[in-house]
């Protein structure tokens, strides 16, 4: 029986390995790839990205009206 044999069939398939890896990432907290780090080292969260997109949309709307 494998270490990540979740269904108990005696074999560890790629889905079970992936699930085990995701559990490992969640437990160790090594999920830094989920956020973008600019040069300053600060993370850009979803709200900041939303504001940037909203601001850009407003500029494009203004330019289209000209």
Describe the overall structure.
The chain has helices at residues 14-28, 46-65. The chain is mostly helical. It has 2 domains: 1-34; 38-66. The longest helix is centred in the C-terminal third of the chain and has 20 residues, at 46-65. The radius of gyration is 21 Å and the shape is elongated. The termini are far apart.
List the helices and strands and how they pair.
Blueprint: H1 14-28, H2 46-65
Which features would summarize this protein structure in a list?
single chain, 66 residues, mainly alpha, 2 domains, 2 helices, 53% helix, elongated
Quick recap of the structure?
The chain is built from two helices and no strands.
Question: Helicity range of the residues?
Answer: 40-55%
Rg computed from alpha carbons, rounded to a whole number of angstroms:
21 Å
Tell me the total number of β-strands. Answer: 0
| Span of the ends, CA to CA | 68 Å
- Helix-strand makeup class: mainly alpha
Strand content: under 5%
Give the overall average pLDDT: 77
The outline comes out as elongated
- Number of H- or I-type helical stretches: 2
| Poorly predicted regions | none
Largest sheet: none
Please give the domain count: 2
Order of helices and strands: HH
């Amino acid at each position: 029986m494998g270490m990540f044999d979740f269904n108990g069939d005696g074999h560890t398939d790629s889905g079970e390995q992936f699930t085990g890896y995701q559990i490992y990432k969640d437990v160790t907290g090594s999920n830094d790839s989920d956020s973008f780090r600019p040069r300053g080292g600060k993370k850009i969260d979803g709200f900041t990205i939303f504001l940037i997109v909203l601001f850009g949309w407003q500029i494009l709307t203004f330019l289209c009206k000209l």
